[in-house]
Amino acid sequence: MRIRIEELHLVGTSRRIRFERGMNAVTGAMSGGKTATISCLRALLGADVSVVPELRGRTMAGTVLIGDRRFRIVRPLVTTTTAKVDIAEIGGQEEAWRLPASELQAGYDHTFRDWLLDRLGLPRIKVPRAPTDQTSPLVPVTASDYLMYCVLRQKEIDASVFGTADNHAKNIKRRYVFEILYGIHDPESTGLRERLREVSTELKALTADSVTLERLLAETAFGSQAQLEVQRTATETKLRAARTADQQLTSELTDPSTVTLRSRIADAESELARIDMATAAESAAVANLRELHDQLIAQSRRLTRALVAERLLNDFEFHTCPRCGSGIPERGDDHTCRLCLQTPPQTAAPSSLASEQDRVIEQVSETKQLIERSTKRIEELQTARAGHARLRSDLGAQLDRATSAFVSDQTDRIRATAAEQARLEERLISLEQALSLYERSQKQARRIAELEQEQESLNASIDASRHSNPAVQERLRKLDEAFETILRAFDTPRFEEPAGTYISRKTYLPIVDGRSFSDLGSQGVEVLVNVAHVLAHQLVALRDNSIPLPNILIIDGLSNNVGHEGIDLERLRKMYTTLLSAALQHIDDLQIIVADNDPPPISGVHRALKLSDTNRLVPEATAGQEAPDTEIDQSGDSS
Asked: Where is this region: Disordered (predicted)?
């Protein structure tokens, strides 16, 4: 993705630095502020703020081209991770954002670094903090981590590759970024890595639990599984003997005489229960009969009143109106009431009422007889119950006397047998629990073996995907070729008996004629190798759109320890020439910014800023007047 810095402005001062396409240079004395300028550029690209004291607390603004969109970014030069960064698009959609620098806050969906990731089209990936420990916490790969491959800082240009010598965490991120850029950490292996993380987490927990369990067993009396099994067998044998002795005592307690007594007691109790049920049934019958008796008496009384009314009120006629006292004229006929002119209802003949009265009186008499019979039956049942209750009491007393003598004679034996049985049962439970711990340990061991096998298989699959992908191998081959070509273009000193120059497939560090970076032995050679290494990444990414490396290269201290005389000066010119050639060849896609003490030893490099002891990065304003902006003449030199 193309990214180009077009302008950097220190707000509140007249310092405004304009950068062009191609290759730009910031030059000047050691104390002028070149490294501070590079720090401001890095902060503009999402790095943590790290500037000289005179810049702290100030605000910088910059214009940055990302892809085909141009943005104005304003960021305070403070170390606070939640300091707000203002972003506004110039032209286009003219969107605007205000985001915390690198630490997410409530009310914000993402940070300035996340915004850069999205604009640069870089994948958002979380990786284990420790590559060798898949259970370690996951940390995000930030825009600053990706831009690590785009910035070669002065303090590492002749000491290490991207700060790997003294920064372990940065070295881990360097390796992850390499794998992401070149497709080694591909989406297909992400699922394998996630499963590997789950397996490693479970394996770590199970291993720790297994070790704790083994230590616990070793420090107790249950240190030997074989001994526990022997003790369990012996305890089970003793427990069976104790239970047999208990059964013998029980059989002795149930001799024929006591068995007969118990049987008779059971019969007596059964008869008592039967009597109680019969008594309850008779009592319920008496209650129902008494209720029926009362109902029949009431019915008999009603019939008596009806008979009397029929006898006294028969053929009664109204000749005077009972309401007004007027005489009632002759009307109606023999079948109609003279008063209401309606047909009177049919009434039972006196003979029918009399026969009903006789039937009810007969039922009352029968009911009384039934009540008396049931009452007598209840009295008989109660008498029988009292007799059976006395019999049950006598039988219980006989059984108590029969068993008390046996129990008193066998008290110690019974107590000892019960105590021994309880002790053996408790011992057996304890042994079973201890053996269950061994069983659990064995299950854990089997599970650990399964997880270790799966872990090994997953690692093999991941390694296979890392090194068997033809596209990945082709990218790495081109990186090796570009690295070798640039080293030759720099006329880098080589070593006798070369064993190959390439990028290590294990450490992703440059190897020069079989020597690792730390074994080069010359700071000047390390500078040449480091610059060749970082430029090789850019050239390969420019030729392969599948490598998402941002296309910008910032180098601080380009001529450090290279020398400025003789063959060293010639090598410095070749290094500048190679960088300029790459920038011009990809002038629309690659911007190179270098900082050096001396002016470039070749022409064609845009002098973006020339600093000195009197013209420092933060200009000193005269009384009532700010220092003028740096102007660039047509030749590219500062004026």
From this structure: 618-639
Pick the closest to residue 5 from 575, 606, 543 (CA basis). 606
pLDDT confidence of residue 622: 47
Query: What's the half-sphere exposure (Cβ side, CA atoms, 13 Å) at 134?
Result: 19
Helices (H), 314-349: none
In what helix (H) or strand (E) does residue 553 lie, and over which residues does it extend? Answer: strand 552-556
Residue 278: Cβ-neighbour burial (10 angstroms; 0-12, 13-18, 19+): middle
What's the burial of 199, exposed, middle or buried (CB within 10 Å: 0-12/13-18/19+)? buried
* Lowest-confidence segment of 328-337, 555-564, 605-614 by average pLDDT: 328-337
Least confident of 27-31, 64-68, 472-476: 27-31
The model's confidence at residue 637, banded by pLDDT at 50, 70 and 90, is: very low
Give the separation between CA 429 and CA 526, rounded to whole angstroms.
72
Is residue 591 within 8 A of residue 19, CB to CB? The reply is: yes
Locate 608 and state its tokens: 């973006």
How far apart (Å, rounded) are the C-alpha atoms in residues 606 and 209? Answer: 65
In single-letter form, the type of residue at position 65 comes to L
Question: What is the model's pLDDT at position 449?
Answer: 92
Q: Please answer whether residues 5 and 66 qualify as being in contact, where contact means their C-beta atoms are separated by less than 8 angstroms.
A: no
Q: For residue 330, how many other CB atoms are within 10 A of its CB?
A: 6
C-alpha to C-alpha distance for 631 and 16, rounded to whole angstroms: 9
pLDDT tens profile 211-269:
887 777 777 766 777 888 888 899 888 888 888 887 776 665 555 666 787 788 888 88
DSSP 633: -
Task: Give me the count of residues in the chain.
Answer: 639
The DSSP symbol for 628 reads P
pTM of the shown model = 0.63
Alpha-carbon Rg of the chain, whole angstroms? Answer: 55
Using DSSP, state whether 302 is helix, strand or coil.
helix
Contact between 239 and 428 under an 8 Å Cβ cutoff? The reply is yes
Please give the mean pLDDT across all residues of the chain. Answer: 85
Q: Is residue 404 scored above 90 in pLDDT?
A: no
Report the SS3 class of residue 23. Answer: strand
Instruction: Report the 10 Å Cβ neighbour count for 506.
Output: 6
Q: Which tens digit of pLDDT belongs to each residue from 126-185?
A: 888 877 776 778 889 999 999 999 999 998 898 888 877 777 878 889 998 999 999 887
Per DSSP, the residues of 444-457 read HHHHHHHHHHHHHH
Distance in angstroms (rounded) separating the CA atoms of residues 278 and 288: 15
Residue 607's H or E segment, with its range, is strand 606-611
Q: Classify 36 as helix, strand or coil.
A: helix
- The neighbouring-strand residues paired with 429 are none
Could you give the 3-state DSSP secondary structure of residue 64? Answer: strand
Angle at the Cα of 291 from the Cα atoms of 289 and 296, rounded to 5 degrees: 90
Nearest to 571 by CA among 538, 527, 515: 527
**Highest-confidence segment of 77-91, 230-244, 457-471, 485-499:** 77-91
For helices 470-489 and 523-543, the axis angle rounded to 10 degrees is 130
- Planar angle of CA 307, 313, 315, nearest 5 degrees: 120
Supply the pLDDT for residue 627. Answer: 43
Cα 607-611-613 angle, rounded to 5 deg = 160
CB–CB of 66/2 below 8 Å?
Answer: yes
Q: How does strand 515-516 pair with strand 510-512?
A: antiparallel
For the chain, the distance separating the N- and C-terminal CA atoms, rounded to the nearest angstrom, is 33
